Amino acid sequence: MPTLSLDTQSDEDQWIWESFRYHSRTFSLAAYLLPRSVQMSVATLYLYCRRVDSIADQRVLEVGRDRALDEVKQVRDRLDETLAGTPPTNTVLWRRLAEVNEHTSLPREPLYELVEGAIWDLEARPIESEEDLI
User: Fold this and answer.
1) In whole angstroms, what separates CA 93 from the centre of its chain?
2) Are 41 and 33 spatial neighbours (Cβ–Cβ below 8 Å)?
3) Is there a contact between 20 and 46 (Cβ–Cβ < 8 Å)?
4) Which contacts of 22-29 are long-range, i.e. CB under 8 A and separated by 24 or more positions?
5) Strands, E, within the chain: which ranges?
6) Exposed site from 13, 46, 79, 87, fewest CB < 10 Å?
7) Rounded to whole angstroms, what are the CA distances from 128 to 56, 61, 69, 134?
8) 94/121 Cα distance (integer angstroms)
9) Closest CA to 49 of 57, 60, 37
10) What is the pLDDT of residue 114?
11) Which of 4, 3, 92 is nearest to 48 (CA)?
12) DSSP for residue 111
């Protein structure tokens, strides 16, 4: 299994790192301060979060609320598959997220909370209590 560090420069590593640098100029610069052994994992996790946020914040403007909601739910389905060890094989992000999970046993709750937050936003649910914010 390939290592998840910048020492490995496969095409997939380059895609992950260049996408990370493109979408997060400041954070990707700060990532150089992290140990090299975790930099690709951080980049991969960032891109997952970016994917979810982009659907809820930008994609919704392009395709409408219902389609964006469907896309976020598809992300949740892909996350289920990925964390179960059977990521969609046609997408670098999901393969790499599966590798990160295999190496680090990712905590699942924050990954799903991000998706649920995007669904909450797209459904325009009202905030009724302090608990809704937590």
Assistant:
1) 8
2) no
3) yes
4) 23/47, 23/50, 24/50
5) none
6) 46
7) 21, 26, 21, 12
8) 24
9) 57
10) 97
11) 92
12) H
CA distances from 19 to 22, 33, 69, 81, 109 (A): 5, 18, 24, 23, 25
Residues 115 and 75: beta-carbon distance below 8 Å: yes
The tokens for 3 are 């290592």
pLDDT at 53: 96
pLDDT digits (tens, 9 = 90+) for 72-114: 999 999 999 999 999 998 899 999 999 999 999 889 999 999 9
Which pTM value belongs to this model? 0.84
Nearest to 53 by CA among 39, 36, 71, 35: 71
Encoded tokens for 73: 């739910």
Q: 71 near 55, Cβ under 8 Å? A: yes
Q: Is the pLDDT of residue 6 over 70?
A: no
Structure tokens at 43: 């980049």
DSSP summary character for residue 8: -
Please tell me the total number of residues recorded for the chain in this structure: 134
